[in-house]
Amino acid sequence: MARRLELTIGMVQEAGLAPERVGRARGLLRALSWFAARQPLGAIGGVIVLALIATAILAPQLAPHGAKDAQFTQYLPPSAEFPMGTDHIGRDILSRVIWGARLSLYVGLVSVAFGVTLGALWGIITAYFGGWADGASQRAVDALMALPPIVLALSLMAALGQSVNNVIMALAILLTPTAARTMRSVALSIKESPYVEAARAAGCSHWRVVFRHVLPNSVATYIVLFTVNIAYAIVVEAALSFLGLGAPPDEPSWGGMLTAGTQAIETAPWMIFFPGLAISLTVFGLNLLGDSIRDLTDPRLRGGLG
Amino acid sequence: MRKYLARRLLLFVPTLLGASILIFVLMRLVPGDIAEILVYQTGTESSAVQEKQIQQIREELGLDRPIVVQYVAWLGNALRGDFGYSYTQRRPVTDILKERFPRSMELAFLTLVVAVLWAIPLGVVSAVRQNTWADYTVRLVSISGLSLPIFFTGVLILYGLVRFFQYLPPLEFVAFVDNPAENLKQLIWPTLAQAYYISAPIMRLTRSQMLEVIRHDYVRTARAKGLGERAVVYRHALRNSLLPVITFIGWWGGRLLGGIVIMEIIFAIPGMGTALVQAVSYRDYPTVQAIIFVMALVYLTINLLVDLAYAWLDPRIRYA
């Protein structure tokens, strides 16, 4: 009898829990395959981005040498020992490209997380409360956006000084105004919606409305801004380092590696090819993924002609 | 239209002022002012003497005054065309601007012209022959143009030139008025490299706009009344798909200016971009400030012109 009860409980558990688990796994798989079928290019982008993330996380295991180890012969062409050759002070380029993935992703993610989040909060709060603070902040956004992006980043680097963290800060400042403006327009339309009015009528405070109603409803735009801007931040970081004003030269920045390669363009072309390919592939993957995420969230573009 | 124009012009001035305040404050945030940099870079005297020199330079340059006073003085001088003195180049900043500005603007203008001249026809072809090999080729070219960062394209072209054509970067810049052929020869590669980058999104946008417009009723009407394909495409469809493309060009004006900086560095063109990068790395703040101010002015002007062109081209805005 007791045994039977156990069995029954076991069966109930099996019946109750297992299908749910299976269902969940199937659901995820189905969601992924749905995405791949809907957005084949986006799926390719996703694979590239996953490879990039894996490279960044596993850099210590994947890279044969340290990013700053300069103990080899200079300007060695690609060979079995150094698949991408060595650079002007005898560092293994393969290792630097791998560590560079970590640097790029770190700079891209952190700067976008700060910049877009700050911009989003700024845009939503000023849009919701309006008044002179909104007007003043709009003029500040105008002033920030009056400078060409690279030029603004350059002047910020001039003021902050060269270091990886200052590049992140400069990029965050660069991303904030555009994010603020985009989120502001979203928040303005949410502010006028009936459910916000209903929440106010039910006695919610303004801050409660902002955090419980306006914020959650603008998350889709936030996610799109986030994904689209990562590629942008990575390119701007590389451009700054390429101009010699981003990360310090010993850091494995792909842009900085390109500059070093340009100095030796005749004798050691491998110094430009591999870092250049790494940036291009990264940007390509992130753009494909970002585009398809944007398409999925924008119903007007579904099944489009583009 | 007049109201729109007035409002648009009214916004221009405060935005430029805001940008100039922003630049001014940024340059004052720098650890160590120009006096310290000048003295520590060149001086070998004892620290007491250096201290005195720093004080002296600060007084000379007015750095000891409140920042608001300094800004007003700077703005007053800037409006009269005096941007201060560059200590690294040892000449007035205005001279640097006079020398460099036309070069950079020529490069920007050429780039835009080349990009538009080749992107719009290709975008049209790609849309009219949707899903043929011509379309696929154009799309592939534009997708790769979008993914290759501009500095990588530039460096690749430089490599090709150096490797196969024994190209040497020009030692001295030749102005267009002195020798047009030589001038264009110097600018052709940076122009093409950047035009490739700028043209990719223009191509894509022209294509998608054309695809949309071509399905409109008035295009069907034009066909139905017996117009030739050429007239339908160019007179009816293209005209109406160009509007967003024009705004887009204004929106990309910033990237165009940023790209100019990078192209000048790669191809050794002594324009505003090279001067800016140099000034930033030598911490020559009067020069940085002046160049950024001028670039903001150019950028805002491009946007203003684009908005006005848009209003002029779209009757719905013109008569609103």
Question: Could you name the key traits of this structure?
Answer:
heterodimer; A: 306 residues; 12 helices; 0% strand; disordered N terminus; B: 320 residues; mainly alpha; MetI-like fold; two-stranded antiparallel ribbon; 1% strand
Walk me through the topology.
The complex is a heterodimer of chains A (306) and B (320).
Chain A: H1 2-38, H2 40-57, H3 59-62, H4 93-129, H5 131-145, H6 149-160, H7 164-191, H8 194-201, H9 206-217, H10 219-242, H11 254-263, H12 270-297
Chain B: H1 2-28, H2 34-42, H3 47-61, H4 67-79, E1 85-86, E2 91-92, H5 93-128, H6 133-147, H7 150-165, H8 180-213, H9 217-224, H10 229-251, H11 253-266, H12 272-281, H13 285-313, H14 315-318
Antiparallel strand pairs in B: 1-2
What does this structure look like?
The complex is a heterodimer of chains A (306) and B (320). Chain A is an all-alpha fold and 306 residues long. Chain A has twelve helices and no strands. Chain A has helices at residues 2-38, 40-57, 59-62, 93-129, 131-145, 149-160, 164-191, 194-201, 206-217, 219-242, 254-263, 270-297. Chain A is globular and about 75 Å long. By secondary structure, chain B is mainly alpha-helical. In chain B, α2 (34-42) crosses α3. The N and C termini of chain B lie close together (7 Å). The model of chain B has no long low-confidence stretch (mean pLDDT 82). Chain B has one domain (95-319): Orthogonal Bundle (MetI-like fold), CATH 1.10.3720.10. In chain B, 79% of the residues lie in helices and 1% in strands. Chain B is built from 14 helices and two strands; from the N terminus they run ααααββαααααααααα. Chains A and B meet through α5, α6, α10, α11 and α12 of A and α1, α7, α8, α11 and α12 of B.
